[in-house]
Amino acid sequence: MTYDPSNIFARILRGEIPCKTIYEDDFVLAFYDIHPAAPVHALVIPKGSYENHAAFVAGASDAAIAGFARAIGKVAAMVGVTEGGYRLIANSGANGGQEVPHYHVHILGGGSLGPMVAKTFSLHLN
Ligand code: AMP
Predict the structure, then answer these.
(1) Which of 70, 75, 80, 118 has the highest CB neighbour number within 10 Å of its CB?
(2) Contacts of 125 by beta carbon, 8 Å cutoff, 6+ apart
(3) Ligand 1: which of 19, 29, 43, 51 to mutate, judged by most atoms within 8 Å of the beta carbon?
(4) 44 contacts: CB under 8 Å, gap ≥ 6
(5) pLDDT of amino acid 112
(6) Which domain range does residue 100 map to?
(7) Does some domain include residue 56?
(8) In angstroms, what is the span from residue 126 Cα to ligand 1's centroid?
């Protein structure tokens, strides 16, 4: 999969469409999800052009990876979920249900989030 620069998060990074910015630094932009799936739902995206988690960790510099990880913690604190707890989700590829092909981490919190994943499939444990 090659990076598609017309994806919606690339357009947000270029300032072509607006977002509700929470935090920005040299490495990341964080903003509120347009369709919140929890009382608090923020997205953190790297500024580099990486389509998913695998591409990010394979291609980004150590500084960019550290900056991204630290920014997630900073944003969680900024949106007020650190104390109560939160969930990080990084959907990747078709099976992961990724809709926007620019790597991003969801920060979900503000209330109890229920089971980690929907148990609608057969488990193969042996
Ligand atoms: P994913 O399924 O992990 O790719 O998640 C993509 C997320 O981006 C979804 O939760 C969408 O609601 C969110 N989203 C799509 N377009 C926008 C937008 N313009 N501003 C903020 N969030 C968006």
Answers:
(1) 75
(2) none
(3) 43
(4) 28, 29, 30, 68, 71, 72, 75, 104, 105, 107
(5) 97
(6) 8-109
(7) yes
(8) 36
Q: Name the token pair of 122.
A: 């057969």
- Give, for all 126 residues of the chain, the pLDDT tens digit: 699 999 999 999 999 999 999 999 999 999 999 999 999 999 999 999 999 999 999 999 999 999 999 999 999 999 999 999 999 999 999 999 999 999 999 999 999 999 998 777 666 665
Q: How far apart, in whole angstroms, are the C-alpha atoms of residue 48 and residue 45?
A: 9
Residue 3 falls inside a structural domain: no
User: In this predicted structure, what is the pLDDT of residue 79?
Assistant: 98
Does some domain include residue 80? Answer: yes
- In this structure, what CATH number is given to the domain that contains residue 24? 3.30.428.10
Could you confirm whether 102 is annotated as catalytic?
Answer: no
Q: Is 94 in the pocket of ligand 1 (CB under 6 A)?
A: no
Whether residue 116 is contained in a domain is answered as no
Q: How many domains does the chain have?
A: 1
Residue 71 beta carbon below 6 angstroms from any ligand 1 atom: no
Of 35, 53, 102, 104, which residue is the catalytic one? 104
